[in-house]
Amino acid sequence: MATIEGSKLFEQCRIFILCSPEISLETAEQLAAVIEENSGEPSIFESSPEKTDVIECTHIVSSTINFQSYDYFSNALIPIVKPAWIHTSLSKRKLVNPRHYSPDPRLFLNDVVVTCGDIPEGDKDAIIGAVLAKGGLYSPRLTAMVTHLVDLNADSDKARLVKAKAMRTKIVLPHWFDDCLKLGQRIDEKPYMLPDPEILRAGPNDPIRWNENRDVAGASAPAPRDMPTPTSTPNQLKVFEGQQIMLSEDLEIGSHLRQSIEAVLEQSGATVTSKVEDANWVVCKFRKGIVYRLASRLDKVVGNLAWLYYMMTFNTYTRPLSRPLHYPVSPDPIPGFKGLKISLSNYVGEARIYLENLIAASGAECTKTLRQENTHLITAHGTSEKCNAAREWGLQVVNHLWLEDSYAKWKEQPVSDPRYNHFPLRTNLSDIVGQKMLDPVVLKQVFYAEESAGPARPMQIKDQNTTQSPGEDEDNSSETTQGTPQPAKKASRGPSEKRALQTPARSRLIPENKENETPSSTSSRKSKDAATARLHGYADDLALYEKEKKRVGGVVYGGRRVSDEDRVKLAHNPKKRRSAEPQDESDDEEVVDTKRQKRTRPPISMHLMITGYQKWIGKANEKKQDADKRHLRDLGIMLVQDARRCTHLAAPTILRTTKFVNALAYAPVIMSTEFVTNCLQQDKLLDPADFPLVDKENEKKYKISLNKAASNAKKNKNKLLNGYRIYCVEDIRGGFEAFKSIVDANGGECLLFRGRLALANNSRREESDDEESDVDDDGDDRAQHDVFLLSSTEPKHARLWPRFRQVAGEIKKTARIVRVDWLLDMAMSQELRAAGNYEITEDMVEDADD
């Protein structure tokens, strides 16, 4: 890596370099030499820096956020960057934005450097903005640093250059960025890569491949049954060296296993302690009890047994908050999760085991099979028999992000959020399971908030001599920050202490007459005073904890023994005594649930689709809507969202909504929403024939007859548009997906046209021998000779028309550019309409208001 002769680029920087499997000691020394040559002050750390070192630091170079003092340095607003930040800063001769080089996995595009090929300007601006917002970079030119080229075909100038120079740049469709942003996660690029993207060629029933998920390896269960066999001998387990570790009594492990764990820890250089205040790592099972609350308030590193086993196995430190099941679980369910029955579909391998355990940790029930009494189906993609059955039964069908977000925020998330209903084509979401981190702010607010509100408290630090113990923390953050042990660090490789540099580090602000008083000693003295005051605040907790330790049987996670007289009061009638044991309480609840389940619902009499029902519109009516849906199901009415499943359609008037238009193709019984209102009010299933939908005004407006449309639909059998190939401009009003669903419901083909892709030369009509009843302007040309483009008269859409006519001519088809009314009128009347009455031309664009 070249340096700039005589450069003072890093003159005001003190940069910590953290060694890791990705940054070897040799690599760190090379980086340090470059920084020093450019007037910076580097320091190499073979393990996590101490919290007191924050005043010595302006930047941290690390390939990961899994070092023990990450939370503290992050809260102190110290930029944490990957080594590429050094390289790029040198090449650009300025300090570049550290956000774009963060190793934080939440910035899921932080490894992406994107350039755009031959795509519309609107798409280009959107992609660039999204990449920058999620930690990536944009390059206007195609360089060796570019990781992704966004293009619509492999014949553009940039795409040809990638191929000619055999560059490692991946050429992807814009769809990849769209799906990543909708999910808030980075997914595999392979199905989107040109020249042969899988999402455009694979059939709907083709199996979807999955990749082994490493994010959940060793983190799929909160309470492993067996102690792992370490990959290294105890003497080589450097991850535990110098740590003071407490194993809580609530781990519920036998004495033999406890002794085995303690032996491994002690042989690895750790000290096992029984005092919370002496520990810097606390291992417990539950987010409850004195040990957990006190350790969290004192900012210790709090994890569970799975977390400890993970480090034994891989000899690598990981933050417990990085993986949900490495952190203690709650004995209480997430609010709203009690009683939920959740099934899984399409998740495989250890990702499935992880989700099963996460469901259990959330307080819901995970069922192996899917039944009508289930409430949710969590699926990795949208095509399976389970998915079809769940939609038919009116269950909530979501991806795993709904569960992970609910667990991280400890609050049931709305299933209506589009993020939880998105299933990218040709992607199995098992690949991105386990990437959600826990939120320390939520944990503090819900599980160990201070009993008395007040200003942000200083972090705990114990009185100490010259040498600090590993568990002593200094933190001024109001958020929950994991404590950090203090392993030995390599001596600084920076320049001489006498160098006078102007730097934003606080160490530069020490007055000259204090030059013999080091920043760490000053900070340490202040922290001691603050810690002393802080310990007084925890005196009651400490006293209670010490008292509980002396009890026979030790401390239970709730802070009381189950036999304590003041723990529960018994009823006077011994036959109706409430047990003090948690298990007994659980059994009582199961009895109640069993009794409830015996009350069976009536069989389903109709599958009803509802659209435009005013009493359910608006966020304020969400609870009423849910209650009404359950009420209707108790009457034998199953609400469906898929038009293919509906036998009845209810609407206040004739509507041009997607639901209404799609449902017409399946010839349902059409009735007024007054049917729904009256069924709910009278608490019984009424006759739909008593509530026909009568709307003469809109029948005249749209030139249709509902009765005739229903009759036509029965004859058409969803083949009204069989043989029609209909293209649609991308940003048409109403959305491509809505029009595609209408065309699909009527047996046609609907494809997106962006002006770059060639048109295919086969159609469903050409592949079948069905009757040909297509009508054209002249009445004798068949629809199989035409291709249609749904468009508007906006100038940006008109610019695509010449290209559409050109590619249509190349496959010997006639291009018809029409308003969307042509499709809607046919779908609503269930009759073919001549396209000539709906065609638009360049003359209309000139007269358009827009």
Automatic annotation (TrEMBL):
Signal peptide: none annotated. Residues 453-532, 566-601, 763-782 are annotated as: Disordered. Gene3D superfamilies: BRCT domain (3.40.50.10190). Residues 5-103, 103-194, 337-420, 605-693 form the BRCT domain. Pfam families: BRCT_2, PTCB-BRCT, RTT107_BRCT_5. SMART domains: BRCT (SM00292). GO terms for cellular component: Cul8-RING ubiquitin ligase complex; nucleus. Residues 582-591, 768-780 have a biased composition (Acidic residues). GO terms for biological process: DNA double-strand break attachment to nuclear envelope; double-strand break repair. This is BRCT domain-containing protein. It comes from Penicillium cosmopolitanum.
